[in-house]
């Protein structure tokens, strides 16, 4: 490397004011280190430019060699440049490694974009870099866009003039503004007349009306997926085929009958083969899949939802987890697996077996990067892992709780959007969902036509069934509205009790007194407020967090999640403060192989508390760290007598210092390096002196500062 020997020689021969030999050598080493630091900066700054220039000259010489022989000087230049490229490439590789480490510390597995790029590194990117056109290439987005558009216009051509059109006046459709119309909006306008055509065909007798008491829409449309309900007769099927054919001729949206399917509903006494003779669609029995959801006439079986579990297993391949640390696996579970069943859980009430299967996959990937995992490898109870961070968990979604929170939107929309077509139909709500909804809402009575008398929270924010539970049980009509129940005191007439006890009478009188002050307001609708948000509107997040109300806040949130370390150190601290590290005492409880004594001092039994704070090896590191951090009072916190790691952590964090936030980051850094030293001795049979470990702490601290640990920078300078 050019200038290396000269820089070392100049720094080593610089005059020193020290007279003692050891001080003089120390001065020379410091001067040499500073000189090499300045030399490396100048070298690395030009390294990439020199490398590119050398490669370009070599390329030009290779091109020249194809047409003539190189001269002696040119061959020597090429050989010298090849040797030079090797050195420059090594320097560039070192620079990139350091830069990537700083970026990893800064972003790590907590950054969604960086995380997904890392996990999906082997997946081919769906991006067209360039397109060949005649003798040139289209590289910009505009050029590629125009080239693709011209190609398909030439290949597909323009449709012929339409021979048919709609009778727009008869359809009586809402007019739309065509300004700033996108592709999706244009499709909606084109497909919208189909619903009106089917309604007109039904009213004119061209199609039979919906059987029985069914009053819902005949067709369900979303994008290009359409579900049409039809009476199983030859007349109706031929009429539908004629409508779809003419609709395609007008709009160009032609129905592909070969890809369509027919699912019979209670058609056991109908000759379907004869009816479908002229309609070549495939007959598919229930359950079917529509808009990504399984649909069945009865209760869905476990086998009907198994494809969703198989999809999750295929997505969380174990080989991906092996390239990630524990914090990365946590992000993988939170961002990928937890989001996959959300759509399913919003629309359906999934069986508990399905939820347990998803939780089993999440637990296996989280703790062991496997599809399944035994209980021995799970360091923390899964119910606690799924809690929010302020309650001591990792904020992995509890699927049972989030599914209940998502289902509450059905009840909310029944109140706030009664115009939705599904209102009045059966919804996937159970008694627990209704109880949570009533507890999270307050109803203000207007005319009483919408609120439920027993279930809605309309008496001082409390439902009557909680005020008078015995009367509620005795009532034979529990679905009355407030207006219906109060009219003529119908709620009293509904009470049916064989033995009317004193408790019944007490609750009856109390409820009667409360209801006597209620005055309905005809013409004013009942209103509802969601009490868990400031704006009074439902959110799934607030409904999810409300289900954790019985849990107490944890005492380690500020010291684990507030400091700035890489995500893996957050996870290490989360385990350490709960005494969930695999130290000898916990390995002994499991009956697993272990060394009973501490691997740092080899004197005392190994526990997390002893290893991090009470061991004489660790104390020497903490004493050196007190000097490095300029916190002399820190040493007083290391005395024995504290029973938990969390107690030591709190005591050290309260030490007077210029930067309390920086001190909490430093505590995590020092504990992390002590744990790494312990693992080096256990698994790699390598040991280091306390001074060496302290130097590692200082070097790692500098990297953390470069990566963004501003509070730590305020502490160590």
Description:
The chain is mostly helical and 717 residues long. The chain folds into five domains: 103 residues, no CATH class; 118 residues, no CATH class; 101 residues, no CATH class; 90 residues, no CATH class; 160 residues, no CATH class. Helices cover 54% and strands 4% of the residues. The chain has 32 helices and ten strands. A two-stranded antiparallel ribbon has the order 1-2. It has a two-stranded antiparallel ribbon with strand order 3-4. Strands 5-6 form a two-stranded parallel ribbon. β7 and β8 form a beta hairpin. α7 runs antiparallel to α8, α16 crosses α17 and α27 packs across α28. The longest helix has 45 residues. It is flat and about 110 Å long.
Sum this structure up briefly.
The chain has 717 residues and is mainly alpha-helical.
What features would you highlight for this structure?
5 domains, 54% helix, 32 helices, single chain, two-stranded antiparallel ribbon, mainly alpha, 717 residues
Chain-wise SSE layout:
Blueprint: H1 4-12, H2 21-65, H3 72-106, H4 112-119, E1 131-133, E2 136-138, H5 141-156, H6 168-171, H7 183-203, E3 219-222, E4 225-228, H8 234-251, E5 261-262, H9 272-275, E6 282-283, E7 288-290, E8 293-295, H10 302-315, H11 318-321, H12 326-337, H13 342-347, H14 352-368, H15 382-385, H16 399-416, H17 431-439, E9 441-444, H18 464-467, H19 469-474, H20 482-486, H21 490-493, H22 502-516, E10 527-530, H23 540-546, H24 557-561, H25 567-576, H26 584-590, H27 608-614, H28 616-629, H29 645-653, H30 660-683, H31 690-707, H32 710-716
Parallel strand pairs: 5-6
Antiparallel strand pairs: 1-2, 3-4, 7-8, 9-10
């Amino acid at each position: 490397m050019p200038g290396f020997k000269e820089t070392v020689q100049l720094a080593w021969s610089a005059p020193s004011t020290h007279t003692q030999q050891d001080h003089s050598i120390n001065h020379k080493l410091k001067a040499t280190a500073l000189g090499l630091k300045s030399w490396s900066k100048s070298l690395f700054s030009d390294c990439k430019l020199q490398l590119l220039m050398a490669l370009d000259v070599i390329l030009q010489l290779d091109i020249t060699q194809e047409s003539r022989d190189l001269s002696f000087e040119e061959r020597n230049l090429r050989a010298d440049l090849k040797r030079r490229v090797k050195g420059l490439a090594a320097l560039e590789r070192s620079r990139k490694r350091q830069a990537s480490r700083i970026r990893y510390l800064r972003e790590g597995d907590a950054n969604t974009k960086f995380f997904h790029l890392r996990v999906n590194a082997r997946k081919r990117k769906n991006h067209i870099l360039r397109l060949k056109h005649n003798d040139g290439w289209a590289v910009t987005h505009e050029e590629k866009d125009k080239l693709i558009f011209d190609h398909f216009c030439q290949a597909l051509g323009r449709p012929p003039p339409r021979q048919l059109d709609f009778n727009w006046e008869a359809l009586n459709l809402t007019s739309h503004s065509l300004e700033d119309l996108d592709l999706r909006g244009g499709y909606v306008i084109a497909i919208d007349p189909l619903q009106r055509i089917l309604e007109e065909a039904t009213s004119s007798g061209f199609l039979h009306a919906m059987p029985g008491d069914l009053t819902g829409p005949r067709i369900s449309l979303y994008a290009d997926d359409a579900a049409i309900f039809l009476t199983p007769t030859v007349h109706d099927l031929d009429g539908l085929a004629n409508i779809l054919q003419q609709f395609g001729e007008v709009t160009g949206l032609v129905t592909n009958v070969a890809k369509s399917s027919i699912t019979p509903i209670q058609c056991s006494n109908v000759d379907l083969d004869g009816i479908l003779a002229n309609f070549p669609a495939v007959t598919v029995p229930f359950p079917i899949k529509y808009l990504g959801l399984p649909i069945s006439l009865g209760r869905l079986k476990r086998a009907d939802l198994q494809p969703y579990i198989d999809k999750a297993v295929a997505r969380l391949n174990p080989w991906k987890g092996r390239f990630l640390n524990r914090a990365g696996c946590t992000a993988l579970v939170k961002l990928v697996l937890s989001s996959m069943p959300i759509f399913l859980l919003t629309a359906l009430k999934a069986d508990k077996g399905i939820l347990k299967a998803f939780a089993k996959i999440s637990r296996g990937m989280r703790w062991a990067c496997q599809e399944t995992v035994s209980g021995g490898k799970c360091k923390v109870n899964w119910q606690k892992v799924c809690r929010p961070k302020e309650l001591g968990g990792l904020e992995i979604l509890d699927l049972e709780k989030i599914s209940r929170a998502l289902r509450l939107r059905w009840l909310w929309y029944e109140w706030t959007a009664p115009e939705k077509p599904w209102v009045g139909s059966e919804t996937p709500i159970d008694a627990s969902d209704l109880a949570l909804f009533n507890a999270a809402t307050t109803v203000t009575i207007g005319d009483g036509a919408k609120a439920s008398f027993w279930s809605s929270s309309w008496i001082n924010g409390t439902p009557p069934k909680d005020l008078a539970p015995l009367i509620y049980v005795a009532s034979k009509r529990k679905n009355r509205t407030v207006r219906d129940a109060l009219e003529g005191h119908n709620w009293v007439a509904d009470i049916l009790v064989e033995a009317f006890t004193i408790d019944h009478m007490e609750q009856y009188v109390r409820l009667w007194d409360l209801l006597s002050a209620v005055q309905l307001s005809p013409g004013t609708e009942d209103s509802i407020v969601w009490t868990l948000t400031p704006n009074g509107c439902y959110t799934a997040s607030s409904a999810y967090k409300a289900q954790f109300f019985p849990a107490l806040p944890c005492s380690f949130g500020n010291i684990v999640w507030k400091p700035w370390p890489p995500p893996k150190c957050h996870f290490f601290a989360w385990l350490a403060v709960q005494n969930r590290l695999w130290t000898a005492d916990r390995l002994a409880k499991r009956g697993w192989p272990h060394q009973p004594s501490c691997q740092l001092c080899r004197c005392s039994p190994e526990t997390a508390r002893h290893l991090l704070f009470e061991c004489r090896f660790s104390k020497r590191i903490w004493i050196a760290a007190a000097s490095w951090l300029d916190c002399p009072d820190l040493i007083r916190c290391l005395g024995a007598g504290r029973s938990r790691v969390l107690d030591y952590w709190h005591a050290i964090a309260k030490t007077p210092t210029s930067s309390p936030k920086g001190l909490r980051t430093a505590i995590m850094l020092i504990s992390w390096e002590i744990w790494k030293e312990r693992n080096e001795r256990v698994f790699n049979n390598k040991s280091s002196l306390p001074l060496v470990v302290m130097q590692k702490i200082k070097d790692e601290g500098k990297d953390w500062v470069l990566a963004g640990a501003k509070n730590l920078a305020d502490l160590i300078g």
